Amino acid sequence: MRSPIRSLPSSPCKSSPPPLPDSQKKTLCISVFRTIIHTSLNPPPGAYDFSLDLVKNEKTSTLYVILRPGLHEFLHAAKKACFEIVTFTWWPQKYVSQILNQIDPNGQIITHKLFHNYFLKTGNRKAVMDLTLTGRMKDRSVIIDKNPNLCVKQWRNAIKVSPFTGDNNDDELWRLFSFFQAQGNFIDVRNLVHVCSKAPPMPGLPLPPTTQKTLFLDLDETLIRHIFGEPPDRYDFATEMCYVIKRFGMDKLLQVATDCGYQIVIMTASVREYASPIIDRIDPNGLIAHRLYRDSCKRNKRGMFIKDLSLTGRRLDRCIIIDDIWQRVLQRENVVRIKPFKGDMKDTELKKVLHFFHVESRYEDLRDAVSYVNKWFGHQDL
Fold this sequence. Notes:
Layout: E1 10-12, E2 26-31, E3 37-40, E4 50-56, E5 59-67, H1 71-80, E6 83-88, H2 93-103, E7 110-114, E8 119-122, E9 127-129, E10 141-145, H3 148-151, E11 158-160, H4 177-182, H5 190-197, E12 213-217, E13 224-227, E14 237-238, E15 243-246, H6 250-259, E16 262-267, H7 272-282, E17 288-292, E18 298-299, E19 305-306, E20 319-323, E21 335-337, H8 349-359, H9 366-377
Parallel strand pairs: 2-6, 2-10, 6-7, 10-11, 12-16, 12-20, 16-17, 20-21
Antiparallel strand pairs: 1-8, 3-5, 4-5, 8-9, 13-15, 14-15, 18-19
Helix pairs in contact: 6-8, 8-9
């Protein structure tokens, strides 16, 4: 595939900048706008991460910034894999620096910030980022951009991601974690770029058949609470990505469900790279039989991930799911509804759930037991 910019005449935007200081690390160059953040001058309909004031012609407007899901975890994974992290953008340095300082307030993640002087002007008045101006070796450099064929001169070094539009269900950065796991096996990282750009979906459904009843468990804010950044005052363990607080009663729930003859399956809308290390830690005895991740969920018209128990191959009258967001389970009559776990050490929701296992044997259809327990909880209207 031939990049359209290779045939265009180009010249430095101004005098050529000095190359970056020498480094023994590999280089990860990341475009900023619509690659790792989404910005808007209008208040977004949902949550945003932070805002800043823009001043032009003595008029002040507010810029709202939404970070791409998984950004902090992605940057920490790159650092752990011994990459220097370099951001690049054509936008004015004054405002971009404020945004990047919010993303990396302590200056410990982003090594260099490149602006317009590291771009080349092309014959059609567009500008493209030129890796050679950094002084970095092409076989040790990777670029992540929403449109590398048009915006990056060394487009064969680039992994293309879809433009980020502010969707909080976006998983583009999550799926790139495999790059850091595999890159050590390649002398020339460009040989891995194509593979990561076309990562196949992970198989998960249907589950192998069983004669047991099935307990599906959501993960985040049902069994655990995760915290990124600074560690909380109390936490149970940490993974490479976050600090984790286990919900009180989780260990007993797993054991009681097993003793009652249930096969336990984690069903989460989170991605494997994030969830799997956490499940390893919360289940040292191997009571959890299967793990279903985001690729096993459906996506509705609004882009939200929905859990469809019918796809698991399990009989709906012999399975239940415990989830704090019952609206995102297609079979709502199978959901034991509980309140989200926010890290409160006085939380007793899972202790209440144990009542289900005291009464479930009375019901031939577990959905009837679920209905009874939700009413007993007073959670039928959560």
